[in-house]
Amino acid sequence: MAKRYDIVIVGAGPAGLAAAEAALAQGARVAWLDAQSAAGGQVWRKDIRYGWPRQAARVITEVVNHPHATWMPQTQVIAAEQNALLLQNEREGWRITYGSLILATGARELLLPFPGWTLPGITGAGGLQALVKQGWPLDGRRVVIAGSGPLLLAAAVTAKRHGAHVLGIYEQASDAAVHGFARKLWRWPGKALQAAVLRSQLAGIPYHCGSIVTRALGEHALERIEIDGPHGTQRIECDQLAIGYGLVPNVELAQMLGCAMKQEGAHPCVDVDTSQRTSVTNIYAAGELCGIGGRDCAWLEGRIAGLVAAGADIDASLLRQQRHARTFAAALREHFKLDPYIHDLAQPDTLICRCEDVPLQALKDYDDARSAKLATRCGMGACQGRICGTALAELGLFPRSGQRPPLFPARLASLGELASSSETEGSFS
Amino acid sequence: MTQVRINIDGHALDVPAGISVAAAIAQSQRPFRRSVSGHMRAPFCGMGICFECRVQIDGIAQQRSCMVSVRDGMQVVTDG
């Protein structure tokens, strides 16, 4: 029989952690899962050399070892039913049921196509950070960091710390936009301090604004890139390019559960009330999947969701802090708005769907994701359209189609755990 | 740092315990995989979203190498 928990939390980043800590303190029995092998999410990912950031280490240890917490690492939700989830890890699939569910599935990077973007040696910016923290070798490698947003600074710090020769950071936002943002930072003293610390750790690494990587070249792996900047085009020889254009919410599970969405730019995020309730009874959402808001915002929303789900009251100051954290996200969006030129970088022969190798020119006759998928296989591969679907939405070609189970490629043995398999028949891509 | 011995495409390799299989493959300088039309690919998103880093681990195909940590005696087969 499926094991029952008072509260199940999906995602072990700041929002999930805060929710777990708050709910456990109220006496709830909590199950807590994440696709990664260690808790912390992306922003607090454990570094093989340096461990977790200090503030994260304390709460992670506390929650993982709590007698009422069941920690399920390397576990993904494959499908959902009424008050139940079908889970899968490396070895098996199983069902659990819950009283309340808190979604803290975070965000992924916005990865956009440009000529050469599939070459080995090119990763996301946060992507490189994640790889390096788990031992990816960078010692002495020439690394360029590019794309947009404050994540580029954090990625550069991590790369440098692990021995990379960081050639430069290339931010697409203009000099005026970035300085305008810096001038507003005093309103969020914690963020201002964080920025100052990052800058000091990056001494000697040039930071270029208004600069866009237009092309990557190489025989079998990355050899050089071309950058358009305020002073024209330049070519840079490098071994590794870490390029990310910000973050997009991971809403696939929430969509499958039927939670109402709202749009933030070209991408959906989960619509919640001030208590982090979604439109579905007993399902809460906290952090990045409710709109990109950053680590502090995720922590506060996770705490709110954990308290409400456990039946506790929330005080006004917590809500006030959360609203303030959300205004930071709004400022970020405004100042790091993408230059429309980035949307036009892909050429007719640039691959859009990396799983099925579908070029842009094959998609031009379609105006929705589903017909394009059926005719070209775009979005039909292992990533299930997470990369190409998000990119196509950002490029304004067409929005992503809805999510159907299984949420990730699943083994047949796992799917056998589904109570009503007929509902999912024929839906395996 | 403790070392573990793994095997990548028939080559034994000693790597620090706790690193990802993706990192171990990169250290071995082995290719990861070829795309459906034969292009070389390697880890891209770094966090289990894109599936570009998938390899066979201990007989199970299509494992995301960025999501799995090395274990002593692990057998990895790439698709390069």
Automatic annotation (TrEMBL), chain A:
Keywords: Oxidoreductase. The keyword Nucleus does not apply. Residues 5-290 form the FAD/NAD(P)-binding domain. Transmembrane segments: none annotated. InterPro entries: BFD-like_2Fe2S-bd_dom_sf, FAD/NAD-bd_sf, FAD/NAD-binding_dom, Metab_Enz_Cyan_OpOx_G3PDH, Opine_Oxase_asu/HCN_bsu. The keyword Iron does not apply. It comes from the Bacteria. PANTHER family: ANAEROBIC GLYCEROL-3-PHOSPHATE DEHYDROGENASE SUBUNIT B. This is Oxidoreductase.
UniProtKB/TrEMBL annotation, chain B:
The gene is soxA. This is (2Fe-2S)-binding protein. Keywords: Oxidoreductase. It holds the Pfam family Fer2_4. InterPro entries: 2Fe-2S-bd_N, 2Fe-2S_ferredoxin-like_sf.
